[in-house]
Design a protein that fits this description.
The structure is a homodimer.
Chain A lengths: L9 H13 L2 E2 H8 L7 H13 L3 E6 L2 E6 L3 H13 L4 H14 L4 H14 L22
Antiparallel strand pairs in A: 1-3, 2-3
Chain A binds a DNA duplex through helix 1 and helix 3.
DNA sequence: TTTATTGGTTTACAAATGTAGACAATCATG
DNA sequence: CATGATTGTCTACATTTGTAAACCAATAAA
C-alpha cells in the first residue's frame, strides 16, 4: 500500500485485517481481538491504531467517549497492491512455478477454480514457449541466457 | 526468509536477485548492475552486501584483492518463502480473486499454464462451494458470516 | 461529588533499515 | 619504491518499526 508516501507495516496490517473483517470497530474490540492472536499490550495496539489513522488508512468517528474505526481503503485493492508489489520484486522465471505452488496450497472455491480455468484457457493460445528473466538489463543472465 | 532469526530486507533482496541471476559476482559487478536500477552509492551497496554475508545469505571467497559473492540459499525456495509469508497474512476469502488477478497479470509459459490447468482439474472435485474468512476466531466476521 | 475505570494522547526508547562517509589495505604503474 | 586506484572495513546517523509506559479526560459507580 502506498498512500501519501507512508507504507503500512506488518503489525499495522494485522489490525487492518480486523477492521476490514468487522467492517468497523472500537479500539476495545480491536484490542480484544488482536490479543487472541498476538501478545501485544493494550498500549501497543493504541499506538498502532493511531499510526493507521495518521497514515490515512483508518478514519475515526467519536461515539460517546470512544472512537469507532473505519477503513479508508478497501481490503481487495489493498491485498492486490501488496501482492503486486511483492511480485514486482520477483524474477519472471520464478513466477510460473510460484503461482503453481500457490494454486496448489490455497483453498479455492469451485467458482474460483472455474474462473481460473477460464482465464488460463484464454491465455494459452498466446502464451510464449519460454519465459525470460528480466532481473538484469541484458544478456548477463546465467539463468535464461 | 528466515535464517538464524534475521530477515532479509527489501534492499538486500534486490542485491540477492543480482547474485542469483549471475550465479556469483564480485562487489564491483554487483554495484555496477544495481546502479542501473537504483540510485545507491557504492558505499551503500557494500554495506548491504556485508549485511547479507553476516545474515548468512551470501558467502564470500577471496579472489586476489576482491571477493566473489555466492548465494547460500536458492532463489526458488526464497521466493516461495516470502510469498507464503505474505499469503499467511491475507484473508482466505481474498485469495481466490487475488490469485486470479495474478494469473491474468503474469506472463506464463505454455508449460506453466498446462501444469496449472492440471492442478486445477485435480482440485476441482474436492473444492468447497464457498470459502470462509479465518481472520477472526469465530462468528464475529462481517464478511462471510 | 469523589473516585475508580475506561479510553485516548504523548512521550520514550531499542532495534532494524536505508544511506553513506571515512579510513585502511592492496595492487598496479610510473 | 612512491602513488594513485581499487576494494574492503568501520563508523555514523536519520527514519521507521515494534513495543509500551505515563499521563490525561471523560464517564460511571460509590
Amino acid at each position: 500500500m502506498e498512500v501519501n508516501g507512508t507504507e503500512m507495516t506488518s503489525a499495522e496490517w494485522e489490525l487492518m485485517r480486523i477492521v476490514w473483517t468487522k467492517g468497523q470497530a472500537s479500539s476495545t474490540e480491536i484490542i480484544q481481538l488482536i490479543q487472541l492472536k498476538k501478545d501485544w499490550s493494550e498500549s501497543t495496539v493504541k499506538t498502532l491504531l493511531h499510526r493507521l489513522v495518521s497514515k490515512n488508512y483508518l478514519s475515526t468517528v467519536k461515539e460517546g467517549r470512544r472512537f469507532i474505526y473505519t477503513p479508508l481503503i478497501d481490503e481487495g485493492p489493498a491485498v492486490q497492491q501488496i501482492t503486486t508489489d511483492l511480485f514486482s520484486q520477483i524474477c519472471d522465471m520464478e513466477k510460473g512455478p510460484l503461482l503453481l505452488k500457490l494454486l496448489k496450497d490455497t483453498t479455492l472455491s469451485q467458482a474460483d477454480i472455474a474462473s481460473m480455468q477460464a482465464a488460463l484457457t484464454v491465455k494459452l493460445p498466446n502464451a510464449p514457449t519460454e519465459i525470460h528473466c528480466h532481473c538484469l538489463p541484458d544478456d548477463t543472465c546465467a539463468k535464461c541466457c
